């Protein structure tokens, strides 16, 4: 009786082994599946419009509405204001940006202490960049130090920023990233997101997350099947399974 | 092999197809206990079909009072869950909760037979198709609320007691599963909750955290920089949205910092910008329903496309012209036009039923409201515009035979992968719907009032 049971158990394991080997899908079969996917043109248009609007490409969104008939999900006029703020930050005119944000909606900065701190920090960086050392120190003492006292992570950021002053050639110091234009862009992005959220709009366009989903889905499917991939998103070319 | 034009013929036929919306919504779900297929001799089911009471003697292994739900658990979602409340554990406390398939054995506890699973209250063991159970969770008795669930993503069964998860076990059973409850000693009484009442266990929270797990894994992946701009540009060029492209191109050149475009992209833009202006003009004309003007423009610039009057491009344009005549109520003219231009397509399988559907429009006083009303929608004009667009692109000597824009190719790959994943998971799990994703605005949902 027990020998029989061992035999049955072994059979189960063999069956499992066969089942765990991957399903092979040929290029022809896969292309059939791809062509069978139900994808509506309107949905793709909406996806593109969503991108243009969230990223703030007003003129393009307006033209797209005319050329494709796709309706933007938010009023295009609100985009112009938002873009003015974003541009100001990108160009290093932080004081101007703060004024604009408050004009748009004073609640945004009131309810976003982290954002406000980052804007002030950017202002400090710009002062340092222009060699206005005295002004920078005064600003740091009056505006930023009090915030640093309230919040540990703000304090750390503040200290990092002030460290820029220690080096004669700040462009080669350990905290040089702060001077990089990418930091302005980061702050600009933050403001952009906060404005969108205050307008009850999602701060991120949907397109990037769909692309991430694609990579994730291919990884998941790799565990169960052999099939043609798209490895280079920019060409969207199908690669044969053997490659 | 799928030729470009048959792709558009297919779309023309099914232009505003709302079918794909239905896949997730229309699943049946358990609502009560199944009184027909239960061990009638050993239990009675309450009139509301949500409670059972043991009436047998509980003397051996074949007089279990067991019952299934009326419908199997729905599976096109992340997870399913239900609960029981032990009103009375009776003399021996031999209550069980679990899942069985549609050919389960009457009179046996869930878990004892193959392709069943059961968590038993008497000993707290889990039974997975054998008479011997394995250590699993606590024993449970009168006053306890016990829940059983299926996680389709991880392919596991999970159980809870009084709102707390007590364990999970691999789901080894394939096919539709029925929530199952059993009682096996005198005076045992149990009631069932299929969601009509609030659960003791935070199932919604559990579902949300499962969804989140997926989200977090997805967020971790990285995409090439600036890919979004490149895809949008390619999309605009592919479909001939010339003015949008130029506005977008201008704006991206003015961004801070300017968006880096690799060498290959320059070549790609050249290719896809082929005949951009003509394609834009044709899209505009067709978008306004000016089909005669569209024909004239094509004869002018791309005579090879309209030479063969029986080609698919000509077919679509003629159909659309017919539809435009119906739209303005010029029915006699429509009939005349149909006789001259559409009659020749009867007898050609691919086109015939579309021609018949078009002619059907003539019959209705309010054709927009008929079941062929979709022909009158703007999306129909769009299909024709897209078909003409693709035809012009194909005249490019450097044409690479790419039917889809890069964006569309990526989206199709995404959907095909998700469909295949579900297929390999026996159709279980939540399906991906682009339409639903686009409509879903989490900001609007959490907006506070006042």
UniProtKB/TrEMBL annotation, chain A:
InterPro entries associated with the record: CRA_dom, CTLH/CRA, CTLH_C, LisH, Ubq-SigPath_Reg
Start and end residues of each CTLH domain: 78-135
Taxonomic placement: Eukaryota, Viridiplantae, Streptophyta, Embryophyta, Tracheophyta
SMART domains per record: CRA (SM00757), CTLH (SM00668), LisH (SM00667)
Official protein name in the record: CTLH domain-containing protein
Xref: Pfam families: CTLH, LisH
Organism annotation: Eruca vesicaria subsp. sativa
Automatic annotation (TrEMBL), chain B:
Superkingdom of the organism of origin: Eukaryota
InterPro entries found in the cross-reference section: B30.2/SPRY (IPR001870), B30.2/SPRY_sf (IPR043136), ConA-like_dom_sf (IPR013320), CRA_dom (IPR013144), CTLH/CRA (IPR024964), CTLH_C (IPR006595), Gid1/RanBPM/SPLA_SPRY (IPR044736), LisH (IPR006594)
Region (Disordered): 1-33
Signal peptide, first to last residue: none
Gene3D superfamilies: 2.60.120.920
CTLH domain residues: 275-333
Location of the B30.2/SPRY domain: 11-199
Entry-linked Pfam families: CTLH, SPRY
Protein name per Swiss-Prot or TrEMBL: Ran-binding protein 10
Species: Eruca vesicaria subsp. sativa (Garden rocket)
């Amino acid at each position: 009786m027990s020998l029989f049971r061992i035999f049955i158990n072994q059979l189960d394991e063999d069956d499992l082994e066969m089942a765990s080997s991957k399903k092979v899908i040929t290029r022809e079969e896969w292309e059939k599946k791809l062509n069978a996917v139900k994808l509506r043109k309107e949905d793709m248009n909406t996806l593109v419009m969503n991108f243009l609007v969230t990223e703030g490409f007003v003129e393009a969104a307006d033209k797209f509405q005319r050329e494709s008939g796709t309706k933007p999900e938010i009023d295009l006029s609100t985009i112009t204001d938002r873009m003015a703020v974003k541009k100001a930050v990108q160009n290093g005119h932080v004081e101007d940006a703060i004024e604009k944000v408050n004009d748009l909606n004073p609640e945004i900065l009131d309810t976003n202490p982290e954002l406000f701190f980052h804007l002030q920090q950017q202002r400090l960086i710009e002062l340092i960049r222009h060699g206005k050392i005295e002004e920078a120190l005064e600003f740091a003492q009056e505006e930023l130090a009090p915030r640093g006292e309230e919040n540990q992570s703000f304090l750390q950021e503040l200290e990092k920023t002030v460290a820029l002053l220690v080096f004669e050639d700040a462009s080669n110091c350990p905290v040089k990233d702060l001077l990089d234009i990418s930091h302005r862009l980061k702050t600009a992005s933050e403001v952009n997101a906060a404005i969108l959220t205050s307008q009850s709009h999602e701060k991120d366009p949907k397109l990037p997350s769909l692309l991430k989903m694609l990579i994730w889905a291919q990884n998941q499917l790799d565990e169960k099947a052999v099939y043609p991939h798209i490895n280079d998103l920019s060409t969207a070319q199908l690669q044969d399974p053997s490659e | 092999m799928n030729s470009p034009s048959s792709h558009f013929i297919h779309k023309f036929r099914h232009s505003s197809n709302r079918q794909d919306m239905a896949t997730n919504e229309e699943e049946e779900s358990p609502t009560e206990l199944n009184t027909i297929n239960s061990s009638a001799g050993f239990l009675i089911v309450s009139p509301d079909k949500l409670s059972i009471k043991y009436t047998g003697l509980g003397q051996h292994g074949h007089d279990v009072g067991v019952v299934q739900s009326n419908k199997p658990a729905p599976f096109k979602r992340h997870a399913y869950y239900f609960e029981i409340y032990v009103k009375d554990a009776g003399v021996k406390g031999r209550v069980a909760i679990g899942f069985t398939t549609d050919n389960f054995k009457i009179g046996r506890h869930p878990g004892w037979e193959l392709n069943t699973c059961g968590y038993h209250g008497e000993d707290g063991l889990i039974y997975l198709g054998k008479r011997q159970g394995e250590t699993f969770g606590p024993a449970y008795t009168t006053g306890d609320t016990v829940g059983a669930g299926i996680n389709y993503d991880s392919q596991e069964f999970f159980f809870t007691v009084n709102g707390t998860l007590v364990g999970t076990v691999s789901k080894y059973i394939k096919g539709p599963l029925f929530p199952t409850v059993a009682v096996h000693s005198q005076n045992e009484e149990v009631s069932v909750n299929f969601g009509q009442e609030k659960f003791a266990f935070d199932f919604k929270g559990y579902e949300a955290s499962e969804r989140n797990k997926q989200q977090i894994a997805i967020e971790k992946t990285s995409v090439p920089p600036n890919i979004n701009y490149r895809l949008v540009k390619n999309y605009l060029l592919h479909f001939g949205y010339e003015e949008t492209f130029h506005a977008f191109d201008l704006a991206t050149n003015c961004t801070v910092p300017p968006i880096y475009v690799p060498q290959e992209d320059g070549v790609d833009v050249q290719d896809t910008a082929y005949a951009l202006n003509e394609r834009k003009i044709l899209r505009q004309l067709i978008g306004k329903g000016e089909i005669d003007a569209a024909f004239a423009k094509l004869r002018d610039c791309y005579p090879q496309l309209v030479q063969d009057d029986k080609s698919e491009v000509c077919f679509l344009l003629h159909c659309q012209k017919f539809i435009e005549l119906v739209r303005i109520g010029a029915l006699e003219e429509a009939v005349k036009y149909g006789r001259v231009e559409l009659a020749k397509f009867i007898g050609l399988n691919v086109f015939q039923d579309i021609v018949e559907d078009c002619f059907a429009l003539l019959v209705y006083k309010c054709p927009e409201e008929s079941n062929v009303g979709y022909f009158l929608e703007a999306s129909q004009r769009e299909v024709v515009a897209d078909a003409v667009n693709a035809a012009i692109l194909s005249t490019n000597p450097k044409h690479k035979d790419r039917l889809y824009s890069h964006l569309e190719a990526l989206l199709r790959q995404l959907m095909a992968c998700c469909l295949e994943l579900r297929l390999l998971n026996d159709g279980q799990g939540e399906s991906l719907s682009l339409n639903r994703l686009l409509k879903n605005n989490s900001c609007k949902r959490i907006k506070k009032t006042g």
